Recover the amino acids of this structure.
């Protein structure tokens, strides 16, 4: 119950921060609209694939939105650490597991809502621009499948928030946001960028997150499996590292 | 009188620096106990050890006969702390902050509602109960921070420099709050304001370099060094 109480507090803090709406919901939707407009303005060669295909762009944008989730987890953790509020909670009967669950739950829920809104926005754009509906069934089915990627970014946020102060941590997150966008192939197809670049991208979790989100979005579950498993493996490692990091920091703060 | 806190050779070292040095102390249930000392004397470190915020290097401490090294989790449900800095959740309202802390300590719904009414009334927080903590002035935030320490009905409350940075009026208001708690809760208070300890505390310990240099009532401390006021007595004790 302590973890749920803490989760509710974190959810309220997030919902009452106007900036979180802009970054977590507004920006991905704006980017989706902007990319569609750019796509519309590029002269289309007959038979050539669209530069920004809505079926590829929407799930990639859902993953991109998760990077802002990472930023807000990071700000929450580092701000709490900087204030005496966390000291008060360290003196309470809360355990490190209560803190971790309390940080993960509200942001994971936000991640799911964020994906749902991004997908609905993708559907509206598809209807307006292409005059056809996306596959709503696959779209909805793919949302719970995004949980490993959501937890991955939350884990990175907790690690940064744990080790860096409230000034440095957001800066590091911004670097990851940019890195995830480029190395994840959110805007451009990694396959067209050469083998060397693809190898670098394959060594990081972002590319696999985007890949499996795209496959899941169109119901290509057989091709989705490999990137999903790779992303889940990264998630397990990073999330475990975040738990260890937070518990370690909690213990070292007591020295 | 029942012992609330007992320290036995309690020691805290940071590398080669000894912050608290073999402290032996007994604090009784229901008393307001003042910890006085210049900066770096070891007051906050003592509180941090007694609240489980800092590990004990050597020696031991007991809170209502519970060992701080073995029974910390049980001790944590008996105590609460108001730290030097204001410790509130900024985007939560006054009421939500109180509810949050009560829920963290597992206070039943009925007890929570009753205690909340009582605390909101005694700390006169009614007029700001639906205001977000971040919109409150420093004095109100400090008052809320103390209310958050009281909402769990602790047997012992640690107030670490509770009036630091407050204006005279806000400080006097908080004195009233602490005075009202006299006899109901054991209070360990650290402060730099000598008039504060004189007005509020039953007994006072003067710390220098991690050691207790003097212990007694304000009158006993003044008498021990032949001074008429606590400030002169404090200077005399610390310098000699």
């Amino acid at each position: 119950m302590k973890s749920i109480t803490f989760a509710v507090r974190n959810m309220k803090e997030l919902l009452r921060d106007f900036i979180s709406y802009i970054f977590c919901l507004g920006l991905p939707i704006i980017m989706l609209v902007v990319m569609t407009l750019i796509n519309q303005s590029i002269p289309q060669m007959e038979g050539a694939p669209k530069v920004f295909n809505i079926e590829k762009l929407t799930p990639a944008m859902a993953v991109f939105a998760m990077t802002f989730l990472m930023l807000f987890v990071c700000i929450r953790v580092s701000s709490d650490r900087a204030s005496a509020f966390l000291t008060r909670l360290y003196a309470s009967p809360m355990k490190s597991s209560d803190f971790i669950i309390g940080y993960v739950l509200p942001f994971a829920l936000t991640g799911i809502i964020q994906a749902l809104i991004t997908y609905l926005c993708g559907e509206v754009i598809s209807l307006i621009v292409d005059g056809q509906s996306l596959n709503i069934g696959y779209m909805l089915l793919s949302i719970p499948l995004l949980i490993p990627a959501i937890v991955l970014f939350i884990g990175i946020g907790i690690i940064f928030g744990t080790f860096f102060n409230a000034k440095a941590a957001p800066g590091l997150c911004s670097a990851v946001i940019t890195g995830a966008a480029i190395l994840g192939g959110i805007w451009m197809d990694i396959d067209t960028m050469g083998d060397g670049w693809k190898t670098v991208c394959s060594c990081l979790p972002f590319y696999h997150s985007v890949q499996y989100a795209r496959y899941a979005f169109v119901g290509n579950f057989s091709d989705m499996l490999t990137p999903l498993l790779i992303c889940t493996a990264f998630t397990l490692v990073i999330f475990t590292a975040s738990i260890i990091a937070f518990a370690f920091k909690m213990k070292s703060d007591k020295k | 009188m029942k012992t609330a806190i007992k320290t036995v050779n309690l020691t805290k070292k940071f590398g080669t620096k000894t912050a608290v040095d073999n402290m032996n102390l007994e604090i009784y249930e229901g008393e307001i106990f003042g910890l006085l000392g210049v900066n770096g004397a070891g007051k906050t470190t003592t509180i941090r050890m007694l609240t489980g915020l800092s590990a004990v290097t050597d020696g031991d401490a007991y809170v209502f006969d519970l060992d701080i090294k073995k029974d910390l989790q049980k001790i944590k449900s008996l105590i609460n702390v108001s730290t030097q800095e204001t410790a509130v959740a900024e985007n939560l309202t006054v009421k939500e902050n109180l509810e949050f802390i009560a829920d963290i300590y597992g206070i039943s719904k009925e007890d929570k509602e009753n205690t909340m009414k009582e605390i909101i009334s005694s700390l006169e927080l009614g007029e700001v109960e639906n205001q977000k903590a971040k919109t409150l002035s420093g004095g109100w935030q400090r008052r809320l921070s103390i209310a958050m320490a009281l909402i769990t009905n602790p047997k012992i409350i640690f107030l670490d420099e509770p009036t630091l940075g407050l204006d005279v009026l806000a400080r006097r208001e908080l004195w009233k709050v602490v005075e009202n708690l006299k006899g109901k809760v054991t209070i360990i208070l650290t402060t730099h304001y000598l008039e504060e300890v004189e007005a509020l505390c039953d007994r006072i310990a003067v710390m220098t370099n991690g050691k207790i240099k003097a212990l007694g009532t304000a009158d006993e401390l003044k008498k021990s060094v032949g001074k008429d006021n606590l400030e002169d007595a404090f200077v005399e004790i610390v310098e000699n």
Remarks:
- The first helix of chain B runs from residue 43 to 50.
- Chain B touches chain A at residues 51-55, 73, 76-77, 79-92, 96, 100-101, 103-106, 132, 148 (CB under 8 Å).
